Amino acid sequence: MRKKAREQEEKQGNLDLELERRLELEYKNIEKRLREQIDGVQDLREHGIEPEEAEECFFHDFDYCKDERRFDDVYILDGRTDRGRRLRLVFQDKGDRLARIFTGWELKPGKRGKK
Question: How would you classify the pairing of strands 63-66 and 98-106?
Answer without folding.
Answer: unpaired
